[in-house]
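User: Modeling request: complex.
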Amino acid sequence: MTKRSARKIRWSFFVFFVPVFLWLFLMIVMPQIELLRMSFVGTDFYGESGFTLGHYAAFFTEPIYWLTFVRTAGYALLVTFVVLLIALPVSFFITKVADLKVTGFLMVLILVPFWVSELVRVYGWMILLRESGVLNKLLVALGILKQPVEMLYNDVTMVMGLVYTTMLFMIVPIVSVMESLDDSFIEAAHDLGAKKLTIWRTIIIPYCMPGIMSGSIIVFMLVLGSYLTPNLMGGKNSIWFTEQIYNQMIIYFNWNQGAAFGFLLLLLSSILIWVALKITGQDWRKVIK
Amino acid sequence: MIRTLPNSRTYITGFRVFIVLYFVFLFAPLIVTMVLSFNDSMFPALPWKGFTLDWFFGEGPEKIGIFHDQANLRSISTSFKTALAVATLATVVGTLAAFLFEQEDFKFKTLLYFLMIAPLVIPGVILGISLLLFANTVGLFLENSIGWDVKLLSPGFWLVVIGQFSFITTIVTLVVIARLRKFDRTLEEAAYNLGANRFEVIWYITLKYLRPAIVGGFAVAFLMSFENFNTSVFLVGSRATLPINLYLQVRDGSTPVINAISFLLIVTTSTLAVINLYAGKSRAKKQ
Amino acid sequence: MQAALSVEKLTKKFGEFTAVNGVSFDVEDGKFFSILGPSGCGKTTLLRMIAGFYEPTEGLIRIRDEDMTAVEPNKRPVNLVFQHLALFPMMNVYENIAFGLKRRRESDSRIKEKVGSILERVGLPEHSKKKIDQLSGGQKQRIAIARCLVLEPSVLLLDEPLGALDAKLREHMKIELKKLQSMVGTTFVYITHDQSEAMVMSDHVAVMNAGQFEQIGTPQDLYHNPNSSFVAQFVGNNNKLPVKVHKDEGGAFLARYLDGKDYQVDGTPDLSEGDEYDMFIRPEAVLINPSTSQSIPNTMNCDVKAILFDGGNSQLLVIPEGADQELIVTLPQNKQFDDIKAKDTIRIGWNPGTAVCFPKTELKIYDEA
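Assistant: Request completed. Predicted assembly structure:
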């Protein structure tokens, strides 16, 4: 834009800028700063509040807290990996193998369930898997099981539930990158004598890396921050870190401790994303597209 | 390997079986939930005791269907109002943000863009608690210093709206930006050249072009708000939204009325999703 | 005659890069004026300055004697037909044409009347309700022009609007556009990289290169009397023969070509002895096997390398004896030369008056690599 017209259209810049700035400043930046501040505020014996590192100390000295934290992070990585393992062949089938006439339909079929609330989907698994659930009834009726088994409330089921609820966020970015992968690359590699695995390793995966990264980051974040699935499907004595935050905030009403946990979770997720981007050498600008 | 290359029969069959299993995995819980909403039983479980519509229309006293279940109806209406408010606000601000990032140049644009993306990678739980803390601090400050008791800042309808708005706007922004990127800027220049001013150009040309993305963004925002749990759970007051209300019932066990609600949710959202997808497709074909 | 558009010493710099460098010209009212140049020569920048999308670094633009410096692009009495037309896809034909009139707050009945009459004039009266994507390439062209003409601009700017059309339609639209311009009488300023478009349609053509005008003149003028090596190469086809100039005993200039022989030159006045020049001869100025009665002073023997048959545009590709260079010679399809075959040896000749010399340059019109 030229100097003259820039001056003339300045009002429109402010019409765009002010609401966006207010949104990001008041609803994202300030609350995060407040979260950090609150995590350092403690109330002493006499009811006076002041600076303390006690909430962070509590995290590191109480094994229940940091064990939950490590467990949550570990499971989030595991879930992300499993989701990736399933999403790659599914995306490949839709974009490259399935008949062109059905690809659109398959894509719709994959998208639709994810529009349904997470709660409804978890509820579906609960009535399928619990001791009095549909699967147990079927297996007993077929004579495979002698008596019903509790399939809910264990870590394997929880991981499966998390895989189920986050699958789409891996498939969509990978499909959109894979669609742009020219078939002739694969044909050329095949023609030059490459085996399937080699093609995957040297052509498809490197090409899809931006999609894989953005999918992985979103899935990882969703799993890390998820509450419903681990709470409703996980075992009773193995709780998720978000549940710790919930307990501190809602049950014990200890907001400062909750803030410290919240900030640690934010820190963990930021660091892991940063590391993931560094390791794979991806530019965040490309990944967020 | 791919459809244009000759493939062995085992490869294709194996792949097809895998995909079929995947779709079974995808749809099994939804179908079971829907089917059991018609089971004439007090529990959402087998055995099948016969077909009934009581979980939709039952008036009690034993079976109260969803259309007579006051508590659930109230939470549906709360969720609906919340979603309407969130979607409207998020669509307006998201569209403004798309214009800001695509058409304007200013210092610290990259930093602001980074902040705009941030809600995608901040867990919803943290958005919820940080907003709760901030609103509480501001509320206390206002009350102590000037004696205002700002309703907006205590847990309740508007705080839920603010909490959901804070990250849903990012989604709308990205949806609108995606379309704005494909916009041919010479159309705007042509409109200027024909005598239109900046406001007229945006109103008659750019927004017209963006309409599908804006409508789509609104629909996505509405659905995301309607089913949000993680952020809202920290911000609700006395009027629970549907997901929170459902969560309590699912956790503590309930009658198949939840299946009936799920049935309605699944049917409406999938219909909306399919309409949205096909509308997008036919538009894409035209252009 | 009044100048519809007058440009004085216009310069545009983008940082270090000078896109347009001190260009001046006047366009008379009602004329078809073309700016011809290769891509990247600055012609689009020049056009966008006239339209008001770029602010000049230096210089003045006047339209009907009015200074345009402080006038916003949406207030200038010029309209632009965009390269890809920029017809609004969300509006139908009528709404597209009415867009500018509505911005002027004209009454609905006036708008209706004006749109109707302009559609009549561009020959598409039945198309007002059509969607843009229902139109053919040529119809879109006409609607884009009608959308501008309905505003009765002092000057209509056209940014290579034929570029996107296929070859046959482009030929047709050239003639259509010329007819349309003479019918409506509006001043057209047309930019293009296609010399044939510029030549066929224009009253005057400016040849632009590296941000500057090389020459302004009628198409005939540019073709017959180019005043630079660039114009000679860019306008029409030309053979470029590297020569070295020396004087004979009588003081007349002779050009020594690669084959070591001397040829007469009298087309160019200020030559200096001992310098290297490029001598340009148009393919159609070269005569094949000239008879002695024609008394052609410049002749050479050539090997025919290939016959490039293209109906009325057929040519011979020949290599002069003793020179390692290909020349193009027009091959008239009048049965006279039907017996010429590849690998034959023929004699060619030309009148000294049809050749022009310019100092040797390394300039290339297109990349052969």
